[in-house]
Every structure is written in C-alpha cells, then in structure tokens.
Design goal:
This protein has 639 residues and is α+β, with helices and mostly antiparallel strands. It contains 17 helices and 21 strands.
Length: 639
Amino acid sequence: MKKCCAPVVILALLMAVSAASAQSSSVQDPAALEAFFDGVFSVQLRQNKIPGAEVVVVAQGEIVLAKGYGFADLAEEIPMEPGITVHRPGSISKILVWLAVMQLVEQGKLDLYADVNTYLDFTIPPRTTSTKDVPPITLHHLMTHTAGFEDEVAWTIVADPELLKPLGQYVKEHLPARVFTPGSIMAYSNYGTALAAYIVERVSGQPFAAYAQEQLLTPLGLTSTTFRQELPGDLAARLSRGYRYEAGRYIAGGFEYVQNYPAGGLTTSSLDMARLLLALLSLGELPGPSPEQSAEDEGPERLLAEETMRTMLSRQFAAHPELPGMTYGLMEAEYNGRRILGHGGDTFLFSSGLYFLPEEDVGLYVVYNSTAGSELRGLVLKAFLDRYFPPAEGAGPQPRPITEGTEANYRGVYHSSRSNFTGVESVVRLVQPLTVDVDSQGYLLLQAGGAVQRFGEIAPGLFQELHGDAKIAFVFDDGRAVRILLPGPGAWLRTPWYQTPAFLTTLVAGSCLFMLGTLIAWIRGVFRIRPRHKPLVLPKALAVLFILLFFTALVLGAEVLNTLHPEYDVPMVVLEPSSTLNVLLVLTKILVGLGAVMLLTAIYLLAAKGGSLGQRIHYVLLTLDVLAVIFVLWQLNLW
C-alpha cells in the first residue's frame, strides 16, 4: 500500500488555506471550507493514486459542505457526487447496531448489564481458554469491545454470495474463543457486533436488516442506505467502484459480500451519513426531511431520548484515566484539546471516516474508493481541526526520557490484543508484531508495519509521542512492562520469548537446513560402494518420510498464502473454504504422529546402543529438529 508523505500533504494544506477566498476560521463559511478541501484532496488523490473521494461537513444542525472529487467509475468517467454516489462504509455500519441496542434498552427490552446468554438460543461458555471461570459477557462489554473474544478474520467477507449464511447460523458456527476476562482488556471485535445484532433480532422478532430499515434508516431519512446485499436496481447503478493501484494500473473490484453484515455490510451515501451525524450531534433528534421525503411525512421526532443518547455518547470504558476510551460503540479521541467521537471503516476496496465534536456541534465524513484512504482520513481530520479548531495557547507536559537503567523493562516484542490465539489465524501474529526499543537519548521507539514512533514519559507509566499528540500507557508486572494501553479498542501484549517471530522463524529455518543437509547426505550415502556403517533402515525411513511431508506442508502453506483474490489482493483462504488448507492440516497431524514415533525410536536407539555413536548422535539431533518443528506447529495452532 502506498504511504502518504505527510510533509507534502501539510504543504498542500497551507497552500489551500492561503488560497482561500475568505480567511475565516468559521466552519460555516462554505467557500472557505471548499477551498480548503479542494487543496487537500487534489494532493491526496494525485499522490496516492486514489480515483475518488467525498467529504461532508455538518455544523449547528446543517450540512455546510458536501463535495465529491475524482471518479466513482474510471472507465465510464462517472464523477463522485454526494447523495448520488453510494459506497461501502465498512465498520461505520456498527453505529446502527449500537443505536438499535440503545432503542431496545430504552424500551426496557434489553439490559446492558445482563448476561447475554439471557437473550440467546445458544450458550457462550463460562470459561476462557485458560480454563478460568470469568464473569458473564454483557451488552456493555460488547459495546465497549471488552467482551474478551479472540479475533477471526476469515470469512467476514466471502468470495461468493452463495457462501452467505443467516446471521444466527453465522454467530453459532463462528463463536470465537474467550481469551480475556470481560471488562479487562479492549480488543476490537467484529463478532461482538454480530452477536449484538443477533440479540436485536431475537428480542425484536425481526431480521436485523429489517429492524434497521424500519426503526433506523427510514426515520433518519437515509433513503440511499441499506443492509441488503442484493442491492436494489437504483442503488446498484449508483454504486462507486472500489479500486487498488498496482504496477501502474487501477484494478477495479466488484461488490463485496459481507458475511458479518451488521459489522460492515452497509451501503450508503455521504449525504446519508451527514444525516446520521446530525442525529448524533442533536442527541437523538431526527433531522428534517431528506430531499426524497415529503415535508408532510409523519414520523417520530426522535431516534432516541436525549438522556439515552447522552448515555451512549458518554465514556463507558478507558484503559487508563489519561487516555481516550470508548463510548457505547464510538471511539474517543483527543486533539488540540477537543474531544472527538467517531468510527473508521475499511473494506477491501473502500475507506471511510465519521467524526464529530459534540461540544462544538460539528461533524465530518470522508470516504475514499481505495484502501489507501485508511492512512489519509486521519490526516484530513487533523488538518481540519488545525484549521478550524487550533490548540489553545500554553504548552502541555514535555515528554522526557525514561529513567536510566530501566531500558530492559520496556524492550521487547508485543502482539495486538486483537489477535487469534486458538486457530490457524494465529500465524498472523508472526507478521504483525510491535517492537519496542530505546534510543540513545532514552526515548522509546515503537515500530510496527514499517512505521516508527518516538515516545517520551509525561507521567509515571504515561507516554506521549515526541512532536505529536498520541499517548500510550504501560502496565507493569514486577517492574517489567507487560502491556501497552492505547486510546480506543486495542492494546499490545508482551509476547513470550518462545512465541516471538524471531525465535519461531529461526527454529523453522534451522530445522529446514538441518533436515535438508541430512537428506542430501543420506542420498549421497546410497551411492557409496562400501557404507561406513550398517544403515538404520527403519529410523531413516521414518525421518525421510517426515522430511518429505514437512517440505510438502511448507509448499502447501505457501500456496495457501499466495493464492490471491485478483481484485482484493488477499489470500483466497480469507474469503472461502480452502481444500488446500484442509490437506495441510491433515499433513500437520501426520507430522505430529511421526514426530512422536521418531522420539520413541531415538530413545530406543540410545537405550539399545543401536548403530554407531555418530549415527545415534545425529538421529537425536534430527529428532530434536523434528520436535522443534512440532513446537512451532503447536504454537501457531497448525494441527
């Protein structure tokens, strides 16, 4: 994915501001707003090879600006037009799930603090994977992403509509393991949203999509919004294509079929999202009729009671008192001294961001028809806030180096709380680590995904980015950092040394080299006229079989990871069941069995002194290699 060059973007923003016809700092000056965003998006789209984008700004109960940039369809040269063009906002869909839950809470049909098993027709186990009895999961936990579920990515989006299952079947068949005590760690969960939507189904007696249409979309006047994944003809004709840029050309994608549709399957327009922003900012009061509605249409005046909406928009969980946290379903952020609520959304083809400042009565929605926008939407928000809501005068605490001699307490490898711990997706943790180091000046260096951030301490255990506003906090156990707390629904957990990518990959690489060398040596030995020692036929046969099956498994694993969807550029195994993966998992089980037999054989050779001393030593070393491979398979749940 092409990364944005922040200095160029900032320069463009400054040029746009200076070129604005009105030097007003008021958000309600449409001409100045338009000039500002013209400068922003002209640079972003050109530099990051993004075909199209849209932006909408609301303030004081009105839509102040709605503008499209670039194309919704490059081949047909159809422009992006707010209110006409529709797109897929990804996880912003979740906001509607949480609104539905709060409606039923307001009606007395749901209790935020009741065991969710009360509302389900299946049972969520009472224990975590560590066989620890934990408190029951509640809707409060689901809405703050603190239920403690592990993450699962596979089949959230599927390759073919025939693979889609009813919501109830999906939540029952894909129940993730419980890995954290509820209310202890934030770990973003798509499944948690699906579970909440299923509870809405159970309590309301309607499919969630039907409930959302009747109780949310229609009252809000969201006439270009639907959870249906067979789009009505008028919406299908208005749907923007999603694109990725590769090897000098744009690759257009088709419609994305979202299995977990309450968590990310919405189709909408930017103007509809503006109406949602207006309802959130007005604390539940419905906006006026949309252009497609008659002013005489009768309907409810509020989506939620003001008190209910205040509860929904209040902080409900934070990992640290000095860090932004979660409301019921919305993520908190702080920038320039302002409190911001919002949610991002990403699919394989679109990136969106919905943000609002409750105290200032201002909201912003931005969408790109490319995943490159996931890195850019935050820059747009910050530029907007810097222009219209600059920081107050007066410097805050200055980040300082950590105490000399404590460097080892921080250094190490960490993994995201939003990870898989019990299934084959555990392998993803190998490629998504966070490394913490300390530079020569005593500042922390956090590196993940090629990006490096530098942090200094501003209070005990609390750190702020140098020349930035990001804050993190550390949790210590016996003086050693074991967890990094973040704003919003996530955390980094210290990875045990034996699960670090460096250790596991070294084990596999070393074992491969030793096995390959052994196989070559044994092949050469076959052609010796007079072998030095009598061959160990059965032990060698076991070892050769293991080696051949192991290298076959490596080839199959590479095929699974490198068989990509032509439009989404993700492994097909993420989108549909894989027969190759099934064969691979059968092979790994056979490898475990062969490894056990080889261990018994090695013990027998040592006890019976079979073969020469050199042969016994070599076979023991080979067996240890085999056990190392099995250890890696065990750690990654590949059996």
